[in-house]
Amino acid sequence: MNLKVLVCVFAFMFVSNLSFVCGQNEALSCNYSNSSSGYSCGLKIINPNGFNNFTGINGTHLIGMTDIDVLHVYKSLSNTLNIPSIICETFQNTQTIELTASGIQIIDEDSFQKCTKLQFLDLKNNKIRQFHKNAFKENSELAYLLLWYNQITELPEDPFSNLQKLVRLDFELNQITNLPENIFNPLTGLSILYLERNLIEVLPRNIFSSLQNMSTLVMHNNKLKILHSDSFGHLPKLDEVHMYSNQIDAIDERLINNTGINSFNLQSNLCVSKDITDNSVTRESMRADLKLCFENYDRIMSGCADGNIDERVCKLEGKHEEVIKDIKALTEENEQMRLEINNLAKEKQELEENILTQNKIFIAAITELEHQMFELKGCGCGCQ
Ligand SMILES: *[C@@H]1O[C@H](CO)[C@@H](O)[C@H](O)[C@H]1NC(C)=O
Ligand SMILES: *[C@@H]1O[C@H](CO)[C@@H](O)[C@H](O)[C@H]1NC(C)=O
Ligand SMILES: *[C@@H]1O[C@H](CO)[C@@H](O)[C@H](O)[C@H]1NC(C)=O
Ligand SMILES: *[C@@H]1O[C@H](CO)[C@@H](O)[C@H](O)[C@H]1NC(C)=O
Ligand SMILES: *[C@@H]1O[C@H](CO)[C@@H](O)[C@H](O)[C@H]1NC(C)=O
Ligand SMILES: *[C@@H]1O[C@H](CO)[C@@H](O)[C@H](O)[C@H]1NC(C)=O
């Protein structure tokens, strides 16, 4: 490997304005191989200035193979501002493209235009700020579109118009504040939608109404304040909804009633924070208009089994003794408990005091509190 290029690439990781100096070393080449995912190009792309005037891709094919045999393009070494159209022009049959952590900032109209067979596109962990509204227009076979951990703040108008075969759309960990009302309408085949860890404040009422095949909606760690039942109504396959760590303080009573949702996780929302220390609250003591939430409490609780959360933590709801027992069990196994995204630091003192004095929960061995652990009580809703 060219040492100069290598040095340059490493330099990029630290000093971005070297781009200039290094710009002279634009390179685009493939290391071809036969792998379990088919004939593949391990792509080396050095293009920090975002040129789109490449005329070919270097590299030597395996004997008997040509550009049209390539089914899989993955990055082997990359630093590029954009995705030059030559990649899809060259490998028109590719079904998979994985260009993760490559510094990509822009997706153009022609980036994937010629990849009409594309099924799996993984662009996670880049710096994508914008993508052209027609970026995926020719990719009607696309089933997986992974754009998580980027810097997307705004979604273009109608960017998914031909993606009826999309099964999974992943926008986790971006900075999206706003969802255009019709944006998901074309995605009639979508099964899983990941929108967590964004800055979304409002859920337009009919935003999901076309997603008749959606079974899982993941929107935790946003800034949602209100949940309307008609945001979820009439979605026959919807089974699992993750809404924890939002700022929800109002929930339409019909929310759970109207759907077949089995698992609705509402931990760590505003409406529950006042109830943190009240582990012995009974259903009857809740506000009358919140009864519905508690009628469905078991179903809501079953939503606690999110991938990040220890299932035992989620079973803490219940009688006093059970709470104590479970926390003890927990402390034996986990001396140090992880703090998931939380704002506990400032409340910690108060929280500990309250739990210790009011509920006599043994927490001495826990050096850090899992925020969600104590909010489960409010896993229902609106306990102000
Ligand atoms: C391809 O290789 C040649 C010879 O090493 C080099 O001059 C050229 O810049 C390379 N082109 C690309 C696009 O990497
Ligand atoms: C090309 O790929 C093969 C197998 O995937 C690997 O063993 C080899 O080191 C790669 N060569 C270069 C120059 O990256
Ligand atoms: C692409 O355009 C840039 C800027 O105009 C130029 O420096 C570079 O040589 C061009 N590359 C090719 C392969 O034509
Ligand atoms: C690569 O794999 C294909 C399909 O399995 C096979 O037909 C071809 O001969 C292989 N080529 C090489 C060079 O190993
Ligand atoms: C809905 O999902 C199922 C699998 O869960 C799949 O077989 C079916 O084709 C999908 N329907 C649409 C309209 O994409
Ligand atoms: C919710 O469903 C229960 C039983 O299925 C019913 O008694 C109750 O009236 C419903 N509540 C609303 C607000 O629709």
TrEMBL record:
Database matches in Gene3D superfamilies: Ribonuclease Inhibitor (3.80.10.10)
Signal peptide: 1-23
Coiled-coil annotated spans: 320-361
Superkingdom, natural source: Eukaryota
InterPro entries, A to Z: Leu-rich_rpt (IPR001611), Leu-rich_rpt_typical-subtyp (IPR003591), LRR_dom_sf (IPR032675)
Keywords: Coiled coil, Leucine-rich repeat, Repeat, Signal
Pfam family, one: LRR_8
Protein name: Leucine-rich repeat protein
Organism: Chironomus riparius
Lineage: Eukaryota, Metazoa, Ecdysozoa, Arthropoda, Hexapoda
